[in-house]
Amino acid sequence: MDIGEKFIGLWDFILTPIFLLVILLIARQRRDKKFKPGHPLRKYFLAGLTVKLIGAVFIGVIYQFYYGYGDTFFFFHHTKLINSSLSESPLTWFKLLTRADITPEMYKYISPMQFYWNDPASYTVSAIGAVLGLITFTSYLPTSLLYACLSFSGIWAMFKTFARIYPLYIKELAIAFLFIPSLFVWGSGIFKDTLCMFGLGWLTYTTFRIFVDKDRSIKNIALLIISFYLLYKIKVYILLAFLPALAVWLLITYSSKIKSQVFRYLATFFFLIVAIVSFLLLAQVFADELERYSLERIVQTAESTRGWIAYSTETQEGSGYNLGEFDPSFTGMLSKFPQAVNVTLYRPYLWEARKPLVLFSALEAFAFLILTFMAFKQGILKAFNKIFSDPNLFFFFTFSIIFAFAIGISTYNFGSLSRYKIPCLPFFAAMLLILYKSNQLKKIPIKSDVKKRIVHHFT
Is position 115 within any domain? Predict the structure, then answer.
């Protein structure tokens, strides 16, 4: 791919307004059908989708006209290569799409994209783009808009799940899941992160529907399988952080409904055994893939990444960060746990921003820092007591901290960090906002009829 190649051209500027109009008209029709006037989620549906669409266009324009290149264009370049085969043979296109057994007619398409062909995670992003390209005439911005719609569907499903659990905190949950800038910018374009947010959202929603609501419909089971597969295929380490938190969430949710203390302990023990056995079985099934994320590999990767970023930061004005020297072992990594979590959730600091996009990340991180102080103003012990006594808040906390540590210890670049950390941001923000708002609600009594009216829409 030529770095100077332009992916956004006249055709994009012609098609993009048309696609925006069609998407918003369809969304408006769906909102009117699913969320009648008076429904507490109604006002957030179009607003949440709109910021995702704006984010997709914004990041594409920034990469094209500010940076001049970026991995989003590498993904799309391979999307174009796959779809260029359609003019020759739809069968060849299908084989390229599915990475089927190589045949002679495929060589001229595979040859220019050998790196992506041998990288299933990256190729999956390009292949999905190729399917969406059938609708968008394989043009960059319209395809980005459809990626944004996919991501929004997952995030909206996740938002709905917790809005139903916390009907008095809908505004706070909307801010956390729909309106965090990093989330609707980096989670909207043609990126791995966009598809991961789709998968994470639907995995959360379907898990709750199947195991808590006992809605084992074909639709929910299919979405659970698709979302799990996408996360496994693109970024399996998200699953490694998410599944333990999810298992604990289900464990506490189920056991808390059992009145008998004896049966509650027995159920807890049973679920722990099932969770451990299931995790071991999954680890065996995906042994080859998970081996890349073994402790030894993670330590080696973190150490080599740290060294390279430190070197590049010294030799040029980059956006790298350093957690200081540590022993390249698992215990050495654990010694950097506080710094790694801090860098993911609260850095870059304002004075560390050397580039425009890093400045946006710094402002967002500063907002998280202020929000943390507000949430824990009631007292650290009281706040943690609320977290540990509420299975949902404990789920938010567990996943956020595990994921923040994993990303912080292995990234060492603020630019990359702003993208990689987005899966944990809505959960962490939701936890903080609920803690803060719950403190305020104690001072402002809620009329019972208002509470009943809100809850009614979710029953």
Answer: yes
